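Morning!

As promised:
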Amino acid sequence: MKGKFALARELFMEQRYYSHRSQNNNEGISKDEVHALRNKFSLSLLTNYFIYAFFFLMLSLILIIDNSARIKYEFYIILIPLYLYVLAFSSYTTLSFLEYIKNSNSVRLLGILPVRNQNLLLFLSWFTYSGSLGIFLLVPATFIYVSQGGNALEVPFQFVNAVTSIMLGYSLGSVISNIRLSSGSVKGRALRNVSRNAAIAILFLLFYAGISLLPNSGILFSNFYRNPLFIYIPFINFSYAFQININSAVQMLQIIQYLLYVVVAYLVLKFASMKGFRRIIEGSSTKRNSGIITKHSLDRKTWSGHFRPSLIKDSKLILRESLPSLLVFTPLFLIFPYDISLLSISYSKALITPFMVIFSATVSVISAACYSIAFMSVESGGIQYLHLLFPDQKRVLMLKMFSSIFIFSIIYIPMAISALYISGIPQLLWPGIIMSSVSLFAITLTLSLKTLLQGSTNVLKVRGISTFGTPAEIALKLSPGPTLSIIITILSVYISLLLSHSSELMVGIWSFTSFSALMVIILKYCIPVKNLTGIRSDYSLH
Amino acid sequence: MSTEKRFICTDTYISLMMQNFSIHVRDISKRFGKTFALSSISADFEPGQITALLGPNGSGKTTFLRILSGLLDGYTGEISVSGYSSSNYSSIIKKISGYVPDTPALYDSLTPMEMFQYIGSIRGVEEKDFRERIEKLCTSLDLDPYLERFTGDLSFGIRQKISIVSALIHDPGILIMDESFNGLDPKSIGAVRDLLVEMEKNNRTVILATHSLEIVENLCTNMIVLKEGKVAGQSRIYERNRNLEETALLRKKYMGMTTG
């Protein structure tokens, strides 16, 4: 077992190494430096775990304290968002972990070792360093519940329940990964990817709408639970499964029923992880064609200029990769909850414009950071071509920025219009707010891409959020762009409030400053400098 | 394809009457941390020659080729291409050369055809030339059945061939190959050799790193041997397709340069 834990740890250490390699060249480093690097990876594994654990603990406590008045009677309803979060977090991290395992070929190394139940070893690795974090979301809330007079037996049961949710999250992630890697035609696989992402987005929206509206209609939801059908759905059947009273034979039966859920969850996990593991080992294949170059396959145009081919390439790569294609939907995931909350709460009309300005800037900044990671991580092995095909980094930045803004605008602008409409902001201000948001997006994106592009000549084996390090490392690395954008926004709001309380003036100043800053950034980082003769001074004839 | 080659040095169009380029390397050194990967390397690569870069593992071949291809900077010394000496060497070389890395680095989620289309477009290859070249290269390397599959699903050898085609799409004046024969089947090795001989005839410059003395004997016109980041020896190969006795002599010469 000790050996299995060591192997499980090594898989995550290897992931850290690949993230490090994507930005650094380790050729020629000494034995001591290798040792120091391993220590750093090990420390980063622990630090990352504790940061997440702390964040989840806080989230759990805040949610439960915020709802303390209802805790005694509606504990399970309050917990629902946390259960959904555990499920989503587990599925996402599983998908990310399995994709990395496939891309890095780590599983092939495992395959030749005499280790039994290798599929469960992957689960053990993921659970130890990632999945188990879900426990920090559910168990602390239960302690508060118990401290306020709840049944003490809830603690071990919530612990088991958290592990069950995590197992189901892993199973879901394995199934999604399996679908992504399954064989079929190129178009078929791209279509499957798009439909799967659309399904995830719709599920998110439904979940969020449900979560937002549920606390206001708790009784209705409790009745909804009592529908006999839900006895067979472990995640929704909290009120049946956990109202523990060991003196009651009926409740004991329900505990047995609950334990049955745990067994079923384990069997699902075993089946899903075995299928996922086999798919990774076997690899996937696309349909082979006849072996003769057909007119169709040669019927490909080359495009003039660099923008169109880059946009087409980036769009295809984004649509065909699981995690980057989810990252480009960041504006949707951020704005939709805002729309829902505006619909369900009352707000001050006087403060809505400054709030909207700051909210739009936040959406742009977070989206830009996610887009920079998505657009760089999809380069995978081909990242070398970015360095080989273009004479300098400025051209690469310009092209990546163009593709990102194009895709961002398609997703962001309709969402922004919906938020502006629901907020009741005058239509006259809409173009200013949207243009400024896109400008801030472009500023943050350029600075972030520049950071990620520097030194990234190595093959990228980890895709998604972890491509360039842990979330904390990435946040630190990418901080200049968001900081600049937020300073621009806060200064604009502050100056306009000093001068007058006019919304028009605020949006005007914000548009002017953000657009000016964007021009400076483009001139500095994206456009090569010419001298007066038009010939670069550093070319000279012998 | 037109005999007049135009290439863009960032903003400037420099018109050259031919596609023949030479590379001159003087005292190139490269350090990674405290370790010298290359130390005072000097070499000349002329049009119409196929130069083999030999040496034991870790001798600095890949580092040298990455510098030559413009992928790696931060070195000391000077490199010039066809008389154009430039602090911005990498911008020029990227336009006129093709580079095949030791491990095929491809876009896993694109099909080979989509990749060729992207690279051809960025390289500014005319549509007619693109079709002709793709048809010729893919037929000779037996790539046809794989053109509409994801590159990430393909075997190492097929990926290596895709990498070679990607480097040749724009009919480069200089071709740099890093152990690119690895993983290829015998028929494909023959096809790549034919392509390189054709490039030699067209007065192109070819530089290839390899561990196979057989390839050096049968294909190359020059060889440079690296050892521990230094040039251990350089030699012109006057006669190719030697007999066994002469092959043994070449082997002995190589061993003499790399051992002791």
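The two ends of chain A are 68 Å apart (CA to CA).

Hope this helps with the figure draft.
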